[in-house]
Amino acid sequence: MSGDSKSGEWECNDALKTWVSNRLLALLGFSSPEFVEFAIGLAKQATSAADVVGKLEEYGLAFSDDLYLFAEEIFSKVPWKVSPRKQKTYENEDGTTGSGKAVFEDQIEFIKESMLKVDDEMSIESPQISKAKSKLETLHEDWRTLPIYAHRDSLLKAIEEHQVLVIVGETGSGKTTQIPQYLHEAGYTKRGKVACTQPRRFAAMSVAARVSQEMDIKLGHEVGYSIRFEDCTSEKTVLKYMTDGKLLRELLGEPDLASYSVIMVDEAHERTVSTDVLFGLLKDIARFRKDIKILISSATPDASKFSDFFDCAPIYRISGRRYPVEIQYTKAPVADYLDAAIVAVLQIHVTQPPGDILVFLTGQEEIESAEEILKHKISGFGSEIPELVICKIFSNLPAELQAKIFQPIPIGSRKVVLATNIAEASLTIDGINYVIDPGFCKMESYNPRTGMESLQVTSISKASADQRAGRSGRTGPGKCFRLCTADSYKTKLDDNTPPEIQRTNLTSVVLSLKILGIQNLLNFDFMDPPSNEALLKALELLFALGALNKLGEVTKVGRQMAGFPLDPMLSKMIVASDKYKCSDEVISIAAMLSVGNSIFYRPKGEQVHADHARMSFHTGNVGDHIALMNVYNSWRETNYSTQWCYENYIQVRSMRRARDIRDQLERLIERVEIELTGCPNDLQAIKKAITSGFFSHSARLQNYGSYRTVKHPRIVHIHPSSGLADNFPRWVVYHEVVLTTKEYMRNVTELKPQWLVEIAPHYYQMKDVEDA
DNA sequence: GAGCACTGC
């Protein structure tokens, strides 16, 4: 990246940088361009040497005489005045620069609102294709009535004239399916492939299927899709739909995207981590590849942010087809939103014309209790009130139960769907006329200082509330009932949800960017930069894992690790398994861990049986990691039996996913020259491999069953779902800590303290692990 | 002795 040159008079000289780097090496044993800049930045802003020390301590460095000396020296060496350069990376309060706004906006054309129903979120399986016409004819007609059709020529002209174009179009405008076809017809595919990225696998698959139908060719020939575990493309493929994460992976192997002539980033407003990283990389690629076209497509009307980021790229607007949605607020604040939501459902049911209801709730538990209360209430209704069919949907609901929301209901009855955020963007239910929105969701946040994740109920943003409201206006005019006052909507809600990249652990992103040769990540052009703290934490961990050397450069181990689509700690565990000759077992464990926490199933009323089944995999107090391996192996022995899963209270879907991941890992280890070897009877080898990845997650027993993490001391507890919950080993290594009612370690295995010094001598000293 | 919103590689 060539981003450093613009920093103006504050560009610090190389001698200063070298000096700081050397001091950091002495102090931390680790340095990198990012740390150097961080330290210099601190010193610039500080008012005294003590201030520098304070800030360094805040960041997590232990106080020492050396640290103080360093602070004094750096404070005196770095000139102290307020930086004149635009600090885009630090404060980003007001993004409205105003000046550079869309040169293109006066050229915007609106066409008449078409009311036809075709959809790029779409359901290709719809059997409702007119019998009188051939399938193809119908498709072509749809295509001519899409709002985008009238824009074809002016859109192509705009793409021709500008390297980067921001396209705004509501869902239903047809942009996802049509633009790549236009580009193909205009000859862009002669110079290279056209990629169109989607945040979700299903969207990539179904849109590709739709387009291949429209073009009347076999899916996988000229039009194909590529997602994890499934590459449906061939040498012929010129229109390639793919997930954004998949393109990022491809970029690691082809940093200039030489085989592509156009990249269209669709659904950019969703701001997934992958999309955000792609933004920065594409902006850079566009600088030295003048022949590549970048299209950023978003459904948010306010696209100025995208335009500003891409150096005032023009904005092109395409109208969509939306029915009006009437929004109602409560007159007074509601005390209990669940209660209020239930009352609202009943009121709509009794007083409003036909049409189904969608209620947004925060999670499974809430949905299930709402379901119970509703059932109870309607049981008291007389026969003159039509039937109310209650459906629920959340991602952990088994697939066969999920399908129920699409089943037809008796004529004259009404459906109410209790849903999590899954119904906000990922999944569309037809026939919804009423939306009830209490205005909350569960959101993950990540604290880089403690490395802890927590999932908390939070108010949604205005953007999110509008998206939810829009769900009622898809097939006809809709109504949305917001369970807050109009005033609190206006004043209390943020405009936008903070992008995921600012709420997540960045270790894996940072490793990828380092592989791509980004020297200094603090200067990387993020649209909304994550905090320096989060970036530095990621660098520190990568150094500890041996993925980066002392100077912040990627090592051989780092390259091996980057070969796996996993969290770097898991990747390191696999790389280390080569040494301990247990890669066969370790990739199973890695696959099971990366599936997450949805393997064991614990239905209401059957908890005792479920817990009993789960404990049967823990024989011998082997620890949770080995137990996961036992689960996988037992399942494999039954030839991947679904019945076996039911009997053992295990989620089939999760197991199948684990199998997919494991298969992929098995293929990948070869590429980084790791041999597939097993050591079924040597649990110690396996545990040592685990420790090689997770040594920074170690904890020792305190009094009364609580634990203290070794490196950055915190009090934590073994999660009750762990096989070791009643066992209290003196030393443990854990997969993660989550904050719920307490700080719980999830997935725990016993450890010998001397392993820590043996495996990570750069991280632990004897004094850290001496038994007190 | 307790709870997983949603994606993705």
TrEMBL record:
SMART domains: DEXDc, HA2, HELICc. PROSITE patterns: DEAH_ATP_HELICASE, HELICASE_ATP_BIND_1, HELICASE_CTER. One of its GO terms (molecular function) is RNA helicase activity. It is an enzyme of class 3 (hydrolase). GO terms for cellular component: catalytic step 2 spliceosome; U2-type catalytic step 1 spliceosome. Residues 337-517 form the Helicase C-terminal domain. One of its GO terms (biological process) is mRNA processing. Keywords: ATP-binding, Helicase, Hydrolase, mRNA processing, mRNA splicing, Nucleotide-binding, Nucleus, Spliceosome. It comes from the Eukaryota. It is found in: Nucleus. Residues 156-319 form the Helicase ATP-binding domain. Pfam families: DEAD (PF00270), HA2_C (PF21010), Helicase_C (PF00271), OB_NTP_bind (PF07717), WHD_HA2 (PF04408). It catalyses: ATP + H2O = ADP + phosphate + H(+). Its EC number is 3.6.4.13. PANTHER family: ATP-DEPENDENT RNA HELICASE (PTHR18934), PRE-MRNA-SPLICING FACTOR ATP-DEPENDENT RNA HELICASE DHX16 (PTHR18934:SF83). Belongs to the DEAD box helicase family. DEAH subfamily. PRP2 sub-subfamily. This is RNA helicase. It comes from Gossypium anomalum. The lineage of its organism: Eukaryota, Viridiplantae, Streptophyta, Embryophyta, Tracheophyta.
